[in-house]
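ok so i was messing around last nite and threw this chain in just to see what happens. nothing serious, just curious
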Amino acid sequence: MKRLLQSFAVITAFAAATAPVQAACWDAAAFEAAQVRQLETMLTAAAARCETRSPAFAAHYGTFRAVNGAALASAQARLQRHFAGAGEGQVFSASLATQAASAARGLSCDDMAVLARIAADSGGSVEALARFASSADLRPQGGAETCRAEAVPIRIALNASGQ
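result:
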């Protein structure tokens, strides 16, 4: 029985050490994708209240979607890979609306039009949108720690007596 428990402990330690780290932390590409998704969500939420109130917002938001369509799709695909099998993707997506509302608190439709214009002019890549999101202080929340290093499998060896 003791040997069975020890074997189980070794297997458990190995499985934990080799499990994907993506649910626990963000690699740089996934973090950038999350920032882009947060920016997109903030502007989409603003569209609901600003499209009819601000012709400037409507124009810049339309340009943002058109110019950055491929980058937005790429960011979404990267997030889907990040959360694959982790069960946290839906929780993250649901939290974006709350974060977007918080980020936009106090901003007028004219302010949102300026943000949409800058985002539209950012260059059309995930990296450029992420730089803009960083400058706007958009950081994904909810355990969004960046990975410090890649996970390295560890091996626990028992001594000759099985202890």
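not much to say yet. Residues 1-21+148-163 form one domain.
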